[in-house]
Amino acid sequence: MDLIKKIFDAGVVGAGGAGFPTHIKLNCSVEYLIANGAECEPLLETDKYLMRCESKKIIKAMEEVAKKIQAKKLIIGLKKKYKEEIKALSKTIEELNSEVELFLLDNFYPAGDEHILVYEITKKSIPAGGIPLDVDVVVSNVGTLVNIFDAINEKPVVDKYITVIGEIRNPCILKVPIGISIEKCIEAAGGSLINDYAVILGGPMMGKVIYKKQIKKEFITKTIGSLILLPKNHYIIGRKELSIKHIVSRAKTACIQCSMCTDMCPRNLIGHKIRPHRIMRSIGIAKDDEKIFMEALICCECGVCELYACPMGLSPRSMNGYIKNELRNKGIKYQKEQEKTIAKEIREYRKIPVDRLISRLGLTKYKGNKVIGPFEVKAHRVCISLSQSIGRPANPVVSIGDIVSRGQLIGEVKMGELGANVHSSIDGKVCEISDYVVIRSENDEVIS
């Protein structure tokens, strides 16, 4: 069977957070295949675990993908500080006599942003509004490559490795079925050390915040790579819960137009014309400047501007996200730059050290905590979203009352559609279908 068809059938999507359907991404021919092992966000450990313990899957998957997309250069980008991971990958490359190379990055944020990673490795800037394909590159997260290897062996994506850290009794890596509740993941890691907490789904810079009362109703998807438990009154939590009205009010009264948000913006530094301080000024003077607002569409929402750069504690990233959604709702898209994009020379001196970022975020307490595992967690009930990727949701192909087995297709899209197939992660009975498919194991009907 064709590789693309196997990837499509298995429901593989970008595991690093974006969730782009992999069968669409790999329908191309390029010079570079880059595996992203930079683990962009601070404190996370999942990709490091995969590079240490699943290196053969990663290398073999890269070789198969490279054949399909005719890539001549196969490169894994990871940080110099990842000594054990470098050792494991190097050993595997030697054993397999592979052409895969390692590219070692400094420990800066956001090294794992694909535009930044591509520039570091190739010295080519992806044009604003563009994708790696525009500079003859495909980027795939190491977790995605593990899933591609399994897809080659006809195993669908039904599990997810996640890092559980912060105010947790046993910081660890868990292997969990997709659709398990956040509550069960926290219990599996020993429970919280504090009573009043919030949870970041993803990394501290770009992740989504949920609160303790929501953990029973939020579920692991193919793109959630970590859970970070923090006190509800933590600095990061407070910043992420500001309302747009409050953000606008603060922009009008406190923005000093120092331009630090622009000067430190990673995308601006690789040559993109995005100037958060100009957007904040337009908001501050209530000027509806659509030309300036269009720049928000190329914001990657890395959070550098508001969680690191701004001396006044303002929220340019959140403002950009709001404007971006408003423009998209109007059907307005950013037109890809046609001129060659050139990075700024000063960029090399404005990389943000991760250790300094961790300190600035108030996360030093959790730095260096030993993360154990992985531990495999079983579930008696899963709530599996039919929308596991960018694009359209899958259409359910099961009915209430059906008995399904682990790995069975429960939601499908058509080949070529922007979307991904969805499979059951446990054996059980379908008991509800909406935007989710809820499945209970038959020996646990009483669980709610």
Computed structural class: alpha/beta
Report the C-alpha radius of gyration, rounded: 22 Å
Q: Order the strands across the largest sheet as they lie in space.
A: 9-8-10-6-7-12
Q: What integer is the average pLDDT? A: 94
The helix count comes to 17
Gap between N and C termini, in Å?
Answer: 41 Å
Characterize the quaternary organization of these chains.
Answer: single chain
Low-confidence stretches: none
Q: Approximately what portion of the residues adopt beta-strand conformation?
A: 15-25%
Largest sheet: 6 strands, mixed
Question: What general form does the structure show?
Answer: globular
Q: How many strand elements?
A: 19
DSSP helix fraction: 25-40%
General description of the model:
- This protein is α/β, with parallel strands linked by helices.
- It has helices at 3-10, 22-25, 46-53, 55-69, 83-95, 114-122, 142-152, 182-188, 235-240, 244-254, 260-263, 266-269, 276-284, 290-293, 304-309, 316-329, 354-360; strands spanning 32-36, 73-79, 101-105, 108-109, 137-141, 159-166, 172-177, 197-201, 208-211, 226-231, 352-353, 372-376, 381-385, 395-396, 403-404, 409-412, 422-423, 428-433, 436-440.
- Strand 6 and strand 7 form a beta hairpin.
- The protein contains 17 helices and 19 strands.
- Helix content is 31%, strand content 19%.
